Amino acid sequence: MVSDRIAALRALMKKKGIDAYMIPTDDYHASEYVGEYFKCRQYMTGFTGSAGTAVITQDMAGMWTDARYFIQAERQMEGSGVVLYRMREPGVPTVHEFLAQTLKKGQRLGFDGRCVGASEAEELEKLLSAQGVSITCEEDLVGEIWTDRPALSAEPAWDLDVKWAGESREDKLARIRKDMKEAGADLFLLTKLEDIAWLLNIRGGDIHTVPVVLAYLMMSEQEVRLYANEADFSEGLKEMLAKAGVALYPYNQVYTDAAVIESQKTVLVDKGKANYRLVKSIPASANVLDRANLTLLPKAIKNPTEVANERVAHIKDGVAVTKFMYWLKKNVGKMKITECSAADYLNNLRKEQEHFVDNSFDPIVSYGEHAAMNHYSPTPETDVEVEPHGFLLADTGGHYLEGSTDITRTFAMGEVTQDERDHFTAVLRGHLNLANAKFLYGCTGINLDYLARQPLWERGEDFKHGTGHGVGYCLSVHESPNGIRWRRLPDRNEDAVLEEGMITSNEPGYYVEGAYGIRHENLVVCKKAEQNEYGQFMCFENLTMVPFDLDAIDPEQMTKKERELLNTYHRQVYETIAPYLNEEEKSWLKEATREI
Description:
The protein is α+β, with helices and mostly antiparallel strands. The protein has 19 helices and 28 strands. The longest helix is centred in the middle third of the chain and has 28 residues. The protein is globular.
């Protein structure tokens, strides 16, 4: 199937005089997760992961993805003829390096410019033009051969009341207009779906598990133009938007409106996020101010109402996941439990919680060797039964009106090996030490990452993913610019100063291919600690309230302080969650959070 599609694409490339065709993961808005209409890379390669870029030439097909997906991509593309390029591994060229090495003078690179960021495309253009290679960005070749392509999503939009958002859309627009004035911008062109949703206090369903609306936004001092499918908006919501000065325009009209921006007007646009075709539409006579979206930091720094709501969301989520842990531990080996049935059981527990909206991502419920694949999600084809030994890893989350959750717990299903126990304990020690960090204001996640990796690094071991990512408020579960990792990656905007109100994950792990995987994840909110002659100190507050599995811990390998940290956390879990459980569950939780 994949080979037939590649053959059809190659024939079309030859007809149109295109020597290499690049297929990114992105939609028109640089979204991490994309709707079914935009899954061109998946359609062409068979790889379903959320990150990666495919390149097709007449004699090769390559797929670039990162370490989270090496095992998954290798398995899904086996026999397809698509070669896996393991990003950031020694000797592996980047996509740009490969294209520069492969394409010759007079040849052409093609891609759909709506799915490639302006910064990346301009970088490619500069790199390849020096070699006499040209670029065409008008061609959606995959769309021409994808005969049964799903329709563009058009799900209803809905209002997020100010009691959840903590700030009205009118106040947010006024705040952004003030920032525009300070930046010297006449227009602000916004393409990121989560930022538009945050700014206008709207949510939708146009991306699976990401409650956003397909839209662009252009605002000035006088007006706000929202380019979207008007049929998605109820009359009531349109009235609320109109009251805030927001007018609806057809989704694709943004390109023609961008093309007639007046001479000498200054347009603020984030070229790293806005697509190439849109930025190219802006007349050369206008001034383009390439800056991070003005909404980026205000969205990431949760206001006091959002933080208070998030605490409520995490109590609800904690009840669901704690009940799930109880059910799992009591029933494994006594009834048939599979990865899929476990995921369904947990999903139903979340649905019982008031104000539940949706999962915040597809459940990663993986048993045994499946857990060694960081982002494996069970399907009917891959589903396996959970047996009363080894580890089950469950990385799941929910959207509530009170906010979004993301939690990973690794459960001992019975007997575990000494290696499994050693690694479980080492990863948990790193998690506890990071959660307990106190640091001076001005630190980024890079300053703190070592706390999470130290127990593994001391053993000469590591995990090949970031330790933490920002989380949106009933938006994307992965949100920049805050993050925690040991090095800065140019293609990931997540090394911002940690500000009060930022919510970040704390999720070290360890993975043994073909055997098992371990990850311990809580969400933490950044808070101010004491201020003194040395400056403003900061710390974290745990939002997630679910026990860690004491059945897999070796307390002898933990320091006294680490045991105290775990005991203190478990006391808090019991006090917070127990009131929502029945007597049998409460009795079990008392034992599950016992002091060690």
